[in-house]
Amino acid sequence: MTARPVSSQAFEMARPASQAKAAAQEDLRPDFRSIFDREFSYVWTSLRRLGVAPRDLEDVTHDVFVEVFRNFDRYDPARPVRPWLFAFAFRFASDYRRLVRHRVEIYEEPVGASAAPAADEVVAARELRALIAKALDSIDLVRRGVFILHELDARPMAEIAETLGIPLNTAYSRLRVAREEFTTSFRMLQRGGA
Predict the structure, then answer these.
(1) What would the pLDDT profile of 26-37 be if each residue is shown by its tens digit?
(2) How far, CA to CA in Å, does 141 sit from each of 24, 44, 99, 107, 170?
(3) Which residue ranges make up each domain of the chain?
(4) Which of 2, 20, 112, 178 is close enough to 143 for a disulfide, judged by CB 3.0 to 4.6 Å?
């Protein structure tokens, strides 16, 4: 009996299904650099929404991506990348807010830095963004994460619960309370309250 050469197709069929699936996922796995380039502004914006001061955004965003790089082998390419990144951003923002209250820094405005008069629409848009940011700041961080992921990033609740590692009913409860807090704070700010 002579041995016949085994074709690559026959070899692929003989591979265990788990190895074939792993190989297929490796083919779909994006590289870290492409995720960094594509999602940097998303992580930056998420951190800003979660209460990281503008002067610290660049540093904290880079810290998030350093941790993402360290854990990149755990990323499942079959799942969306943004909720995975948001989980890192949420943890870093939480640590940042906990540590920043112990830090005292004095910042001075640069000489000659004055706001040039802008068109009414630009001013109104800036004021609206400031009101929204202040209203977001009034929401407790654990509820703010759910609010941002659902209301601003349009993520489904089941995915949010899994991303944040909380039960689904807890996620819905946090969203409901966060909506109430945001609405109350926004209305108060519109009326000129602090």
Answers:
(1) 556 688 999 999
(2) 38, 16, 14, 25, 14
(3) 27-102, 120-194
(4) 178
